[in-house]
Amino acid sequence: MDIFDFSDGREGYYGEYGGVFLPEILHATIEELLSCFRECKSDPKFWQDYVALLQGYSGRPTPVTYLENLSRELGGAQIYVKREDLNHTGSHKINNVMGQGLLCQRLGKKRVIAETGAGQHGFATATMAAKFGFECKIYMGAVDVARQRPNVFWMENLGAEVIAVEDGQQTLKDAINECMRDWVTNMADTHYILGTACGPHPFPEMVSWFQSIIGIEAREQIVNQTGRLPDRVYACVGGGSNAMGIFQGFFDDNNVELIGCEAGGHGVGSYMHAARLAYDDASVGVAQGFKTYFLQNDEGNMNKTHSVAAGLDYIGINPIFAHLWEQGKVRFEAATDMEVKEALRLTMRTEGLIPALESTHAFVTALKEAPSMGKDEIILINQSGRGDKDIFTIADALDDAKWKSFIGGKADQYRGEES
Amino acid sequence: MGLESYIAERKQKKDLLVMAHVVCGYPSFEDNLQELEIMAEAGVDLVELQFPFSEPSADGPLFVRANEESLKSGTSVDQCFEFMAKVSARFPFKLLMMGYYNTVFKMGEARFIERLVQAGGVGYILPDLPVEEAGNLYALSEQAAVEPIILMTPTSSHKRLAQLGAASRGMVYVVARKGVTGSKTDMGDDVVALIERCRQHTDVPVGVGFGVSSKRDMDFLRGHADLAIVGTAALKTWEQSGADGLRTFFAELLA
Lengths: 419, 255
Prior knowledge:
- The structure holds 2 protein chains of 2 kinds.
- Chain A is of the alpha/beta class.
- Chain A folds into 2 domains: 14-55 and 91-203, Rossmann fold (3-Layer(aba) Sandwich); 61-90 and 212-397, Rossmann fold (3-Layer(aba) Sandwich).
- Chain A has helices spanning 27-41, 44-58, 68-74, 93-107, 120-132, 142-147, 149-157, 172-186, 203-226, 241-247, 319-326, 337-351, 357-369, 391-397, 401-418; strands spanning 13-14, 17-18, 64-66, 78-83, 111-116, 135-141, 161-165, 190-192, 232-236, 257-265, 283-287, 290-294, 330-336, 378-383.
- In chain A, helix 10 (241-247) links the parallel strand 9 and strand 10 (257-265).
- In chain A, helix 4 runs parallel beside helix 5, helix 4 (93-107) crosses helix 9 (203-226) and helix 5 runs parallel beside helix 7.
- The longest helix of chain A has 24 residues, at 203-226.
- Chain A starts with 12 loop residues before the first strand and ends with a helix.
- The mean pLDDT of chain A is 95.
- Chain B has a single domain (3-253), classed as TIM Barrel.
- Chain B has 11 helices and 9 strands.
- Chain B has helices at residues 3-11, 29-42, 61-72, 77-90, 101-107, 109-118, 135-144, 158-167, 189-199, 215-221, 232-253, and strands spanning 17-23, 46-50, 94-98, 123-125, 147-148, 150-152, 172-175, 206-209, 227-229.
- The longest helix of chain B has 22 residues, at 232-253.
- The model of chain B has no long low-confidence stretch (mean pLDDT 95).
C-alpha cells in the first residue's frame, strides 16, 4: 500500500482529506518546497545521509524493549516497546527535524521557524538549528510556555528565540497560526519546520516520510526478537507523526492491527479532550492549511481542547489518519487524563520506564487490551518520548509532598537572591 | 449591477475608488454601524464585512484580536448575514463578504452563495481558498452573479498570475507586499511594477491593499490602481480616536 502515490487521485489528498489551503502569497513557497522534497525523496543518497546523521547524532536505531514484568503481571499478550524516548532530546521529534534540516540546506535557507506544543518539537528544532547554524525562532502558546518551562529553558539556551503566543487558546494551534504569519512575511530566507503530519501538503507526506524510520526499524527488530510480526501496534496521536512513523512499517501486513490513541482528557461528553476520531465530537473542516476532522462548532470555529499532555492537545487529526480510519485500516481509542496517570505509575513501578504523558496514552490502551489477549500474542507500543520533561506535571498529578517542599525551598532561595 | 460595471460607473466620477473593511461585531455591531455611516459620508465605494473566524491565520495582530473579541462576545454567522442585509439596504456602497473558507465549507457552498445574495453582497474574499480548490464555488458564484475576489501577490510567478487572471472576475485584490495585514508598506516602484505585472493577466479592475494608510499612499496609487483597499489603519483610528478621528481619517484620505 502506497498512500503517497497520487497518480490515481489528487496530489496531496488522502481520500477527501488533506490538500493545500493557504494564502496565495505562499503558493510559490509551497511549490518550491514540494519540488525540493520530491528531489530528496527520490534520491537514495539523501535517505542514506539522513540515517547516518541520526545514527551519529541521535543514537539510532533505538531499541525495542521486552516488558517482561508487565506482560507477566497482566497475564495476556507479550508487550514490547519501541524506545523513541532514547533519542537525543528525548523523543521521536528529532527524526523529522533532522530530515527537514537536511532539506533546508538543499533549499539554501538560513532561518527556521517552528511551532511547538509540549516543547519537544521546539527543543529538537533548536538543537538542529544550533548544529546546522540556522537562525531559529520557536512559537509556543503562552499556556504551553507556562506548563513546559524546562523545554523553554533548553530552547533558549540552545540559541533559539522563543515567542509566547498570546492569541486564541494560547496553545499549539495558535502557535501554528503564528508560524504561518511569520512564514508569509519571511519565506524568502525561512523554512517552516512543521512538527507533525498535519498542515498543507507536502507536510503530512514529508513528516511521515522522515518518521517512517521508526516503523522500518521496529518491524525488523520485533521480527528478529520474537520471530514474528506483532498482533497489534499502539501509538499516541496528537497530530499523529509518531503513529504514522511506526504504523508505516506495518501497512502491508494485513494481520497487524494498528491502534491510534487520542487524548480523552476529562472523558466522553466533557468537551474537554482532544479525541477527534475516538469520540463523536469532531467534524470535517478546513483550517490551518488542510482539510480533516476538527473539534469545531457548527459554524466552523474551533472548540477548546484539553489534555494533560500538551503534545496531544490539538484540534485536528492528520489527514492520512482521517482517511485510514474511514477505510478501517487504523482503529482509534482515547485515554483519559486519569487513566494516563495510573498507567504511568504502573509502568514506572513494574518496568522502570518513564514514558512521556503523550506516549502513556498508548500504554493505557495497550494495557487495557493486553489481558484479554492470548499469551502467545504480541503487542508493540511506540514510546514516542520520555517523561522526565513532564516532572512538574507528573509531580502535580501524583501530589508528591516531597517535590512540593523542594520547589518551595527553591522558590525561597530565588526570592532571597532577588532581594 | 455587477461589481465590474459598478466600479466602472464610480470611476467616471473619480479616478481612485476606496474599499474599506470592518470586522463584524467588533467592537460591536453598533460601532460597526457608526463606522459604516462615516465611510458612507466620506464616499467609500466598497466595504468588506469580515465574518470572524477562530483561526485568522492571514491577518495581523489587530484583526486577530478583533476576530477573537467578536467571537467571544457571541457573534454568529447568522448575525453577520443579518447585518449585511441591513447595511446593504441602508448605504450606497457595495458589500463583500471577507472571511475564511471554513465558514463557507461548514454551511455548504450553495447555501453560502444563496445567503450572500439574499443579504445583498456582491462578492467575497476568502484568503485561504486557492483557485485549485474553488472550482465548485466559482461555478455557483457565476450562476448567482456574485464575484469571487482573487488575490495576486508579489511572489506570484507569471505562470501563476496567468492562472489567477483567467479565474478573475469583478476585480482582483493585489497584495502590495509579503506578510499579514496591518503593517506599513513602502509604496514604491515595486508596487507599480507589481500592478503592471498583474494587469498583463487580467482585464478586471485592480484594487491594492496591505499597508494602505494615508493620503500619500492614495496619491501614489492614483493612476496605477482602480481601488485603494484600507483595512487596519481605519480600525486603528477608530480604536484610538473614535468617530471623530475616523471622520477626519477618511476625509483626509478622500480629499
